[in-house]
Amino acid sequence: MIGLTDYSMYAVVGIVLTAGFVLLLSRQQRERILSYAHPSSRGRRISTSKTPPRSVSPERKVPNDGPPPVDYKDIFPPSTRENLVKASELLLLSQRDKLDGGEIEGALFQKDVIPFTADFRECGPSTYTPTEVSIEEVRSLGDFPNYAELSGVPLPEAYKEFKIETAIARPYRPLRWTYHQTMSLTKMENDWWLELDSNYKSRIAEREQLFEKYGKMVLDYLPGSELASKELMEMILQFLCARYPQYFSLSNSADEGYVFHNAIMETKTVIKSMHPLHVLLHNVPEDFAIMLRNPEDGFYYFRAGLLCSALGWNVSTKIGLQLKQIHEPIPDYKEKMEFSMDRYFSKLPTSRPIQRGSWGLEVDKPLFMPPGDPHERYRDLQAPDLPLARIHLRVDWQTLRRLPLSGSIIFNFKALFTPVEEFRHEPYIPALLSRILKEGKKNLMEYKSTWHVEHVVLPRLEEWEKEQLDEGMVEENWEVRTLDESPWFPGWEERWHRRQGF
């Protein structure tokens, strides 16, 4: 049986953005295409914590009369060479001399692209990653380089008010009507790439136990993923130290090298002592899938992952597969999304990470459910004695971004659970969810698998919908639709702050 997170991973990686370059085109053609991918930001509202994330409409960013991609083998992601100089400002002069950021000849670059299964540490200095960074330049940057400059995504602001003991994740409600197979993308909020809450210690312990029990079903890596794994780990630790400086820090010494200090867990992790994904396992309660470009065909493949929150699938069932192979079970995927997904992966710039949410309804709080797990039996029947208190909204809040050095694409998500009972106090949510459950497209709703709880949830949603109308929380004759505040609801921030004691 396929579960929520199966849908989540498949759906999110089908996101459609633009802005890449085709090496075989002339310089003038490339610049014309890039002009569509980097529109001016003038005239936009300044974002605040109350501003819903802006939607992305990538299909409109590529001109219909532009040269169509003929072969993904010849299409590379946007270069990050121009960022090398800025990223090297704090390095020694001997290191900076090897980081000029100048243009390289396209034919030479394509000839020397790093092989799919090659370990970057064993490659020659003139070998290049898909983003036009040479292995010599990767080595010159060293460990923990300035990824903010390399990627074009600034580090987050320090979250000074944050207290892990009382922290609650933001109340994501990614509900849409009309509900059909779309991505519903928004620009990633840089400060919220990785979000911690009061369940941090228990969730880390649960994930470590899952690895002990299931091994490669939750954590595995294939040859060629070494640079991407290292790069991802370093970017994440830099983010945590910047966002939560009261809890995390990095030190560097001649004896141990880099050490990550975690005041919540009261641990220190010597970085060079373990694989980068194991560093994340012990310190970050989120899941990560690493997708690498295969130079033989230009398509992207799942090559490494730490995934402890999958329902109905696991790392071992998907690792090594191409994007379209991963997505085969998705309704309408081949007809509506396959082309857009492949094109998006080929063009995604490092400076434009995105976010979205996927949701489902679950009995209790299942985090990891491989095929055959006993918890699956709950989805096979409508238990007459099932209490409402056991039913939860599960939201997988997801991001997708390209890493600047390896050119890999990272899909990550965190599973968040909310008792359905809370919807009673959230304006419009009962009416919106009720409409989706009753009238959502049949094949999508069957795939989402909410039937097993609908006999309990729907009567209460209808009751709360009427109650909110009577109390004036919802205006009369309101037509059910996606909320302007999506993925939240009116008044969410005040309620969220109050529950944390702000």
Describe the structure.
The chain has helices spanning about 5-10, 25-35, 85, 95, 105-110, 135-140, 145-150, 200-215, 225-245, 275-280, 315-320, 325, 335, 340-345, 430-440, 440-450, 450-470, 490-500; strands at about 20, 75, 185, 220, 250-255, 255-260, 265-270, 285-295, 300-305, 355-365, 390-400, 410-420. A hairpin with a 6-residue loop joins strand 11 (about 390-400) and strand 12. By secondary structure, it is α+β, with helices and mostly antiparallel strands. It has 18 helices and twelve strands.
From the structure above, extract its key features.
502 residues, alpha+beta, 7-stranded antiparallel sheet, 3-stranded antiparallel sheet, 12 strands, 30% helix
**Roughly what fraction of the amino acids lie in strands?**
5-15%
Q: Enumerate the spans where pLDDT stays under 50 for 5 or more consecutive residues.
A: 1-69
Strand order of the largest sheet: 3-10-11-12-8-9-4
Largest beta sheet, briefly?
Answer: 7 strands, antiparallel
How much helix is in the residues? 25-40%
User: Structural class of the helix and strand makeup?
Assistant: alpha+beta
Question: TL;DR?
Answer:
With 502 residues, the protein is of the alpha+beta class.
Reconstruct the topology from this structure.
Blueprint: H1 4-12, E1 21-22, H2 27-37, E2 75-76, H3 84-87, H4 93-96, H5 106-111, H6 135-141, H7 147-151, E3 186-187, H8 200-214, E4 219-221, H9 226-243, E5 248-253, E6 257-262, E7 267-270, H10 276-281, E8 287-293, E9 300-306, H11 315-318, H12 323-326, H13 333-336, H14 338-347, E10 354-363, E11 391-402, E12 409-419, H15 429-439, H16 442-448, H17 451-470, H18 492-499
Antiparallel strand pairs: 1-2, 3-10, 4-9, 5-6, 6-7, 8-9, 8-12, 10-11, 11-12
